[in-house]
Amino acid sequence: MAIQASQAMIPFLHARQLEYLVRSHKSSLSSRFGDRPKSAAQLISRRDSNKLACKASVDDSDEDYLIDAPVSAGDGFSFSGGKYSDGPSQSDEWFKQGNMVKAFPVLGSGEKAKDPIFGLTMGSGSQSPADVFRWFCVESGIADNPPVLLVHGFPSQAYSYRKILPILSKDYHAIAFDWIGFGFSDKPQPGYGFNYTLNEYVSSLESLINSLGIDKVSLVVQGYFSPVVVKYASKHQEKLNHLILLNPPLTSKHANLPSSLSIFSNFLLGEIFSQDPLRASDKALTSCGPYKMKEDDAMVYRRPYLTSGSSGFALNAISRAMRKELKNYVEETRTILKDENWKVKTTICWGQRDRWLSYDGVEEFCKDSKLKMVELPMGLVCFPGGASRAGGFRGRTWKTDCGDCWQKSSAMMVQE
């Protein structure tokens, strides 16, 4: 069974495209990623426009992150553990590849989180940890290679980069992570340690990069989280080798969320819809593009919503923050990237089959800002769930699994 996939998912870059964008410059890195050290990387950019054509580990006993919980998480809004088969799942295998990294201090009062509708005490998945948040991170490549941090969009997961990670590992130390509120990272109830504002995401990204011990890094980010990363980069230009933005919101037309995402910001209706894993996951992932993803990949994106209500409440909170703050962040992004003091090598990669973010005005902005522009006429660069590209797209020129095409284009963008 195939499910239509949409824009906010994963960069429809082949890892060869990503390699084309990043100029490796090896540097040592004294840090810890779980128990493993990290390293530093450099992405390159040219100020001309290019078009790229596409052809057709963790302790399982940690109850906060049980994949196949036999019973409800107990917060009053959970399904029966999200168990959908007796055999191993894609989600199980993906989870085993990652580590939990602690970053960004909990700012709440320490009170037990309660749901906003009935005032019931939430389950453990909705509670903040005692001191520092836990981020789910997956890395690929050796520590001596230059690091590339892969940042997923809204809504999505690190899973969207699963096809790129092993390819980049040949020459880079690639790291993908789940934002707070997404995937397997902590998802506290809003108001109890994390409020999901865009400023908090900027600060938390800084904490994560510092916790990974990365001195110099290249950042790849997709979609609606791009303005957050640009704001971080503007404060830490000295730490960046290269910045690659995949279908970022850049024009006034991009400042409003599409209806399939903004619905989650509505009072009461948003809470109801966000507790439906098909609407919160599949509906969001199938509304922004013409491609399809496999059922197994779709289940990975559904899993957080099947196991606990915490993912839904986090989705409500970030949707409200985006609706309130995105316009100002988009304007600030434009100002930063056009400023003569902006020294970070920056590349904009644009998949022109994006139904959420119009291409109108993007090319002109890149020319005015002297930014490198890479076009993917048949691509969907910014996906909400990422599964579409990596998992298997169907289109007029794609076969059932477009993983090969996606990987080649991604690698091209990262290589020197």
Automatic annotation (TrEMBL):
Keywords: Hydrolase. Residues 146-257 form the AB hydrolase-1 domain. It holds the Pfam family Abhydrolase_1. InterPro entries: AB_hydrolase_1 (IPR000073), AB_hydrolase_fold (IPR029058), Haloalkane_dehalogenase (IPR051340). GO terms for molecular function: hydrolase activity. This is AB hydrolase-1 domain-containing protein.
